[in-house]
Amino acid sequence: MPEKAAAAVRPQSPKVRFPRNQPLVSRLVGLETEYATLVADRQDLDQEDLPPSQLVYSQICEAIRRDQPTVSGLFDSAQMFLASGGAVTFESHPSMHALPGGLVEIATPEVQSPDDLLACQRSIDALASDATADSETSFDLRILKNSSDALGHIYGCHENYEAEVARGIGLFIYRCFVMILWAMQVVSLVISLPLMAMTFAAIGVGRMLGKRDDTESDQDPQDAFDSVPTWIAAGLIGSLRIVHFPTVLMLRFVARHVAFRVQRRYLTSMLISRVALCGTGNLDPDGLYQLSAKAMAIDTVADMGGFRGERPIFVYGHWLGQYCAKSFLSLASTRQMLRRRQRLQIGLSDSNMSDLAEYVKVGSVSLVLDMLEAGATTGLPEVKRPLDSLKRIASDWNLVSRVPTSRGDMSALEIQKSFLLAAESFVESTPANMRGESKMVIYRWRELLESVTAFRKEFSDVDMALGRVDWLTKRWLIDQLGDDAEWIARKKVDLRYHELSEDGYHAQFMKTRPELRLADEENIARRRRSPPPSSPAARRGWLIREFANSDELMQSEWAYAVIGRGRRKRRVEFAETGKGP
């Protein structure tokens, strides 16, 4: 079906304002990627024979420590900050540490260029692969960079952007809510003190009873929760959630009605349609192929993300952590929440293997955010029923579905083309010395769009998309098995496409198309050692290299570190505008 002529009309160059004295596409950006581990041993193993998730995580961390200097997190001792500027976190509930599974989350350093971010992400992919291969376990461990496992569990990637939370009267209202939230959290803290005392008491009793069966006295603090009976732990955690629930309700109101209003209004349409370009594909249990497993799991536009199992497009869970812990340990953390520029986190994001898709995913959003902050919103389509439209687009790999927008029914590719043309006009209206990396973003965005459009026009025309578009490359590999292939064989291709090793199917395919790699190997090697010099993470990486093996204790956060013990303890800021990815 030919695209509507209206969708191909280039918008006139808008009259825009430039609120920041910085080139386009130069805001702080970062990625958080959840990696799943896979036991590739050929012998049949029961679930009880599989290694505990805590063991796998600790062994991967040990391998990373052998690779580069690290320090522990300030608020989470299990978190590990790297000399390369990133951070490693264990994504598992304490009560499930003894069970198989769990996810290893590795975040890139915060950088100001999509090209730098791609190099950082590829260096982290290599680090995760090497650390898993070098982990000292008796199992053949592999690591997957995907969004869904064979049982349908959803995880994957989050994108982070520094953006204007509001301006004018909207900013004043936002700051008022920040102060109200802080006051509410003070009340919650007072109420929760008895519950916290009961928690520590339960852990203490559990440890004392545990020593009867275990003569070792150096129990890992991360295993303290294991000594508490499940029903007691569940009751205490449930009580704490009830205490903090009013704060969550207020935060949810701010997330949905106050913060990032302009971004949510226009960016939602772009993100929903983007799965046609940047989705990584998924074969569901019924054998149906989808553009994105992450997209099919989205159930709300803006929310906390994980508090009650919700999966939003725009995630504010990091704000919940801010008010539940960090605000009371550091007044500067509360002060940071009053700033005009905050972290915008996007949960509708796939873990891409393709360099082109990874680059365009971040670069296009960064450029559109520049447009929105400059007031260049004329002609941008707005999807009317976001969640329903997302499901329709993500479940249609033939790309024929059309969804209602402010400009009539449009396909995902038409929406993407509208944003691309608007972005191109915006870049052309920008002074040449302020364009930064935007020209490359436009070029690669068009290349990715044209790759998918060629397939849409002619079903057999996939050559341009192979290696560039993850979901199409994976679909093509699955089709090579033939129509009679069983689901388990097709699902194996789905999963092992994302395996980060020489045996991974994407890695094997890319050996035939090496010209499609965008990240320079030398730059990847540099980013594995240290962050880009322009990044706020540069000072963090330098301090980690200096103090990781010294007698001085260093614990890190994204924006600052605490060095020393007792009265000699001091706080070191990395940068005035530093924010975690």
What this model shows, in words?
With 581 residues, the protein is α+β, with helices and mostly antiparallel strands. The chain contains 17 helices and 17 strands. Strands 1, 2, 3, 4, 5, 6, 7, 10, 11, 12, 15, 16 and 17 form a 13-stranded mixed beta sheet that branches. The longest helix has 42 residues, at 169-210. The chain starts with 28 loop residues before the first strand and ends in an 8-residue tail after the last strand. 45% of the residues are buried.
Runs with pLDDT <50, length 5+?
Answer: 1-9, 214-222, 577-581
Helix content: 40-55%
Tally the helices. Answer: 17
Quick one: how many beta strands?
Answer: 17
Structural class: alpha+beta
Mean pLDDT over the residues: 86
> Nearest-angstrom radius of gyration?
24 Å
**Which shape, going by the Cα principal axes?**
globular
Distance linking N and C termini: 40 Å
Largest sheet: 13 strands, mixed
Kindly estimate the percentage of residues that lie in beta strands according to DSSP. Answer: 5-15%
List the helices and strands and how they pair.
Layout (H helix, E strand, L loop, with lengths): L28 E11 L13 H15 L2 E4 L6 E3 L4 E5 L11 E5 L6 H21 L6 E4 L12 E8 L4 H42 L19 H28 L3 H18 L3 E2 L5 E2 L2 H5 L2 E4 L8 E4 L1 H13 L1 H6 L4 E6 L8 H19 L12 H9 L7 E4 L2 E4 H17 L9 H20 L12 H10 L7 H10 L8 H6 L10 H9 L7 H11 L6 E3 L3 E4 L6 E4 L8
Parallel strand pairs: 2-15, 10-11
Antiparallel strand pairs: 1-5, 1-6, 1-7, 2-3, 3-4, 4-5, 7-12, 8-9, 11-12, 13-14, 15-16, 16-17
Helix pairs in contact: 1-2, 2-9, 2-16, 3-4, 3-7, 4-7, 5-9, 5-10, 5-11, 9-11, 9-12, 11-12, 13-14
